[in-house]
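lol ok so funny story. i was supposed to be doing the assay writeup but got distracted and ended up predicting the structure for this chain instead. priorities right. anyway since i did it might as well share w the group, maybe its usefull for someone
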Amino acid sequence: MIRRVLLIVLALLLALGGLVWMFNFWGAPRIRDSAPRTPPSREQVARGAYLARVGDCMLCHTERGSAPYAGGRAIDTPFGTVYSSNLTPDAETGLGAWSAAHFRRALREGRSRDGRLLYPVFPYTHTTLVTDADADALFDFVRSLPPVNKPNREHRLRWPYNTQAALAVWRTLYFRPEKYVADAAQTPEWNRGAYLVRGLAHCGACHGARNALGGVRQAMDLSGGLIPMQNWYAPSLASPSEAGVADWSVQEIVQLLATGTSPRSAVLGPMAEVVLNSTQYIEADDLRAMAVYLKSLPPTASDTDPREVPVAPASLLDRGGKLYGDHCANCHGDRGQGVPGAYPALAGNRAVTLPSTENLVQVVLHGGFPPATRGNPRPYGMPPFATALSDAEVAAVITYLRASWNNKAAPVNELTVGRQRSSTRE
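and the output, tada:
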C-alpha cells in the first residue's frame, strides 16, 4: 500500500514537472543572436582565462588524456554519471554556434543553447551571480581556444533523474536565477570576496550541506557536507570546530589558498585539487578579498559537547597506540606534536576531531598529499596504508588519534572503515 502511494506521488510530481518544463521551455525567450565573427581582444581573452582559473573550469571540462576544455570527463553522482560538455569553439560539437547571450544564459539560468535545462553538476546555482562582463570575458576565452571535434557523451542517469520533468521539479525547489547585489554596509574588498566565493569559485558546491535530492537549504550555504561518491567531507567554513577561519589572520588564509599549506593547516583530497588547479593562480588582491569574506562568516556553534563523547575501550586504545608507534610516530611525533613545515601536528588538530570521520579514513587508507604549488613546490606527503592495515587496525589507530593528547572525539568502528574502503571511487 505504501509503495503504491509513493508511486502515485512520484507520477504526480513527474506530471507536474513535465508541465513546468513545457512552460519553462516554450516560455523561455528565444535567443536569436549568432556566434560572433570578430576575434576577441588579447586583453579580453587573458581576463577570461583568469576567470576560468578562478572557477576551475578546466578540471571538470577536460577528460584525462584529452584536449583541454573538450569535455567528456565522467562525473559520478548518486543519481548516475554526468559527462561534461565540450567548451571549445567547434561548430558541430562545441560552442562554435553559441552567442555571448547563449553563454550568459547558461551561466545565469542553467539553460543550453536550445533552451534545455542543464544538470546542476554544472554549478549554475553559483554562476548565476556572475556579472555579464565576466561572463562575456569567459566566453571570449573559450572561443579563443583551438576547436576540438569531440561529440558530447550522453549522460547515464537513472530514471526519473534523466528526464527534463524531474529536473524542472528540482529547479522549482532549489534554484532561482539571481544577480550579485553588493552589500552597502560592507567594504568593496568584502564584496569582491563575497562575489568570488559565492559565485564563480562556487565554494558552496562542496562545502554546502545537501539533502537526498542534492539540494541545499540555500545556494550560498557553507555549513559543510559530504562530497558524494568521493567520500570526502568538505568541512563547514563557519564552524570554529571544523574549518572556520574567524580567528585566523588574513595572511594565513591567503597562504593556505595560494600554497596549500599554512602554519595552521594543509589541504588534502579534493581541496588539494582546487588549490593545484585554481586558487594558487588567483591574484593576490582577489585572494585577500576572499580571505576577508571567509573570515567574516558568523561562527556557528560546535555540534559536539565534549562531555557527551563516547569513551573507547582501553583495549582498543592500547591497540591503536601500538599501531601509531609503529606507523605514525616517526613523522607525527610520540605526542602528536608533528614537525613544523613538514608533518602536521595531530594534537589539537580539527581535522582529527571532526564529527565526520570520512577524511581521516581516506588519508589513512589512501595517503595524504598536499598540492605541489609555486609557493610550496615540494610538499611533504603521507603514504597510503590500505594494504598494510586491516579495517580493524585503521579503526583502532584513528580512534587512538581522536582520544589522545587532549583530543576528544568519538571512536571509529571497523564497519565504518570497511564500508568506506569498498565504496570510495577514485
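DSSP finds 18 helices and five strands in the chain. The beta strands are 74-77, 80-83, 156-157, 225-227, 232-234.
back to the writeup now i swear
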